[in-house]
Design a protein that fits this description.
Layout lengths: L2 H8 L20 E8 L5 H7 L6 H6 L7 E5 L8 H12 L7 E6 L5 H5 L7 E4 L6 E3 H8 L5 E5 L1 H5 L15 H5 L12 E3 L6 H16 L14 H4 L3 H4 L3 H5 L27 H4 L37 H26 L3 H6 L15 H15 L9 H7 L10 H6 L1
Parallel strand pairs: 1-2, 1-3, 3-6, 6-7
Antiparallel strand pairs: 4-5
């Protein structure tokens, strides 16, 4: 694949003197075309996108979100037109005659069409070259549409980093959109490729990013924050582990040794402590599901090194040899301290004084054992250190004195008043 030639077509070698091809001073942007290209993909990203809820694809294409332009989506599967009618807008955009701003959304990695072309074939294509009668490779559509795009958005790990089609030993020489367009590529709004990784990414991650870019394009919002790899920073700045529902078990040194258990899954092959992803905090669809939420491990599918850097899957990562053992050492004490604190905070003052819990649901011991009593003594000393107020203290009694003045008098005097 002649990537150097593509760079020259898409953008000059340097960014000096570059000006956007269209501005916002001519009036508000009322509609934006979105060209969805499918390269070496399984269409999982398309399925994820149509399942998005905040916002939905329907909200974007109907222009029902206040302030955002309507999106005219050109999707090879979802569009109601086909053949020449469907490809017409692509050719207009390629020739600069579309008459409206547009974004390019790439799903799937970009294959080296020179390899397939040498044998008279192609890896992935869309439309027909009327001069040769052969399908037009999707990679060539990306090459030709990227120069005039307001933004190029790579959706899914295959498009963002190369993914499975670019794994070691592949025969397609597949690569990411970022690799294909080159470091010097800038859209007409001055943006490098935007990356939304995931296999498949969360649908809401896709539509929310598109909506954020549209807000910037329409002049009703700032440019969203992206990290050094072009990922939406607010989505990918934290690791899976930080939002994981099982993370507390890791601190306490509790690890599952088979699937179906509720403890931390690190020793079953989970890479969550190092993988940047919001799957567990956002859920797969509508805040439901998500790998660790449903008992599965993280295999690093949002990371640039996937899949090679995380293979073989379901094998304990080498780093756990240190971290897990350290966690077990400290975790036994942490686990006891948390259980003690939970038990002592689950007791009302009346129950503590009587030493009995009047629960008809089960027999609950209201009297702490000797170890808990000793720990409780020092625990309360530390908890109340540095403050004048504590339940039953002289400070509390002084503050309540005026409210309790009737209780401090004899019943006959209270009656007289």
């Amino acid at each position: 694949m002649a990537t150097d030639g593509i760079r020259a077509t898409a953008r000059p070698a340097t960014r000096e003197g570059y000006m956007p091809r269209f501005g916002l001073d001519k009036g508000p942007v009322t509609e934006v075309h979105a060209f969805w290209l499918a390269g070496m993909s399984c269409d999982g990203c398309s399925i994820a996108a149509v399942g998005a809820q905040n916002p939905t694809v329907e909200q974007l294409i109907t222009g029902s979100i206040p302030g955002l332009p309507k999106v005219i989506l050109h999707h090879p599967v979802l569009s109601v037109t086909a053949g020449k009618d469907f490809m017409a807008a692509h050719h207009l955009a390629k020739s600069g005659k579309l008459g409206a701003p547009y974004v390019v959304i790439q799903e799937g990695s970009v294959a080296d069409e020179d390899i397939a072309g040498a044998f008279g074939g192609y890896w992935s294509g869309m439309g027909v070259n009327h001069e040769t009668g052969q399908p037009i490779p999707t990679a060539h559509w990306l090459r030709d549409l990227a120069p005039g795009a307001a933004a190029v958005i790579a959706v899914g790990t295959c498009a963002t980093w190369g993914g499975i089609p670019a794994a070691t030993g592949n025969v397609t020489n597949s690569m990411s959109v970022m690799d294909y367009l080159g470091k010097d590529y800038l859209s007409t709004l001055g943006l490098p490729p935007i990356n939304i990784p995931g296999c498949a990414p969360l649908g809401d991650n896709i539509t929310e990013t598109v909506a954020s870019v549209l807000m910037f394009l329409a002049g009703v919002g700032p440019l969203p924050e992206f990290d050094e790899l072009g990922r939406p920073a607010w989505m990918f700045q934290s690791t899976v582990h930080r939002g994981c529902v099982r993370a507390g078990n890791y601190e306490e040194g509790k690890f599952a040794d088979e699937y179906g258990q509720k403890e931390c899954l690190v020793e079953l092959g989970c890479w969550g402590p190092v993988v940047q992803c919001n799957m567990v905090s956002r859920g797969a669809i509508g805040h439901n599901g998500g790998c660790m939420n449903t008992g599965g491990i993280c295999i690093g599918c949002t990371m640039p090194g996937f899949p090679d850097a995380f293979a073989p899957f379901y094998k304990k990562p080498p780093g756990t040899m240190v971290s897990s053992n350290l966690s077990r050492g400290a975790g036994s004490f942490i686990s006891y301290l948390r259980r003690f604190t939970q038990r002592s905070r689950n007791m009302t003052t009346r129950w503590k004084e009587s030493g009995e819990v009047p629960s008809g649901w089960a027999n609950v011991n209201g009297s702490p054992g000797p170890v808990d009593s000793a720990v409780s003594y020092f625990y309360e000393k530390i908890k109340l250190a540095g403050t004048e107020f504590s339940p039953g203290s002289d400070r509390q009694k002084a503050l309540q004195k005026s409210a309790r003045r009737f209780l401090d008098k004899a019943p006959d005097k209270m009656a007289a008043e």
